[in-house]
Amino acid sequence: MELSLSAALILCLTGFIAGAINTVAGGGSNLTLPVLMMLGLPADIANGTNRISIMLQSLVSTVGYDRHQTLDRPAIVPILIPTVSGSIIGAVAAALTPNLYLKPLLLGTILTISVLILLRPDVIAPAPGTPIIAPSANRRAWWGLFGAGLYGGFVQAAVGFILLAALAGGLRYDLLRANALKTVSVLAFTSVALLVFIIFDQVWWVPGLILAAGSMVGAHLAVNIAVRASQTSIKWFLFLMTVCAVLASLLF
Question: 100: which DSSP letter?
Fold first, then answer.
């Protein structure tokens, strides 16, 4: 695929914005997927190509959160078991079927989270000192993580909201640590999903790597801002991004 300089700049800028959004909240793929399709990629190819950017920005975010000691390392494996398991099923399903059927699920999920943040902020943003719950001790959260992996493997858009609902709402992590675990989860199951899309020849590397270059810079800057932000600031940024994700989903 040949790209003009203007198309490459659009991809890089879109990746930068999406990388920052995904690192602190979610919904960045509601920007990147339409842009990829606008530049001529079929929907299935755009879905696969987008995973390059997601994987590399998640790698940058994970390293950044870990460097600032906000990543709960002992919790990684218990959280990755359900998310990666779900992503394998979701990615294979996405490679074989159209992804239009999940739009109602996408809208319903992010609308629900928006309402929770507005009316019951303690559900998605636990108070300081709230005890953390292990995934094995909360079956609803375990299945929520599995569902997030399933959805994320199928179509990446807004999976961060589902993960945050499971990690902050179910396991009671504060939003900073929930975001750190969210990024390592996305890194793991997106790597698996990307491999599936490569096998099915649904990845175009040139636009994917250009998009990834911008998203990695955005992710790096966002981590440095997030670790200094208050829980309240992160909560309202998350709310703003859920509203934007709803609007983007309705438009595209």
Answer: G
